[in-house]
Amino acid sequence: MIDPFQTILVVAALLLAAVTGAYVALDRSPDKVLIAVLAVLELALVAQAVVAIVQLARGSDAVGGGITFVGYLLSILLVLPAGLLWSLGEHSRGATAVLLVSLVTVAFLVLRLVQLSAA
Amino acid sequence: MRPDERSTASGLGRALVAIYAVFALSASARSLVQLATKADQAPVAYSLSAVAGLVYVAATLGLAEVGPAPRRLAWAAVGFELVGVLTVGTLTVLDPELFPDATVWSAYGQGYGYLPLVLPFVGVAWLFRTRSTR
Predict the structure, then answer these.
(1) A98 touches chain B (CB under 8 A)
(2) How far is B19 from chain A (nearest CA, A)?
């Protein structure tokens, strides 16, 4: 479907994961800048879901389709907010590492989504 | 929680809970879809996936200290997970044709970068580290 966009999403998620890794290494809690950038990524993921579901509703075959595909599109949206909530509950390296886990999960899920739409 | 016990949901445990939550959601959701759409194709494999999903849910809740006896729940879930991944992993390596479709624990979780094999060991280690020293 929108391959360049999804490439950007995966790269962005992995770059942010690397940045968050630096936060963990320096023992810094997520600050406003990091949270703002996460929000931008989340908005991009919402855009991905909206575009894909509109394409699906129009009957385009290019998006794969099916319950699994839509499930992936929507569950990706939950990962960052849930991760952020769980992460902000405590100030520790482990808590910041929760964001790292969330970002890697997002990158993995977007890749699976690309696989699903290619299948 | 006894006074000298450490929280399983704190520090490194917080990240561990996040990883377990990802597995809980993905394994449960996947097996629900499989059981709902093609249960007849591989009933044993899909049921096993559903069991694995429930085990991950229990481990997540236990480690996150939800419920009345979270540490006991976490021990039971992580222990089941360890036995499960070793048993299913060994069986599927010996006989790859055993299940018509893969489960999380097939070939020791090869399809998931062997994380399903590593995770219960980390879980057990974490439960040991945070337990009461008396």
Answers:
(1) yes
(2) 7
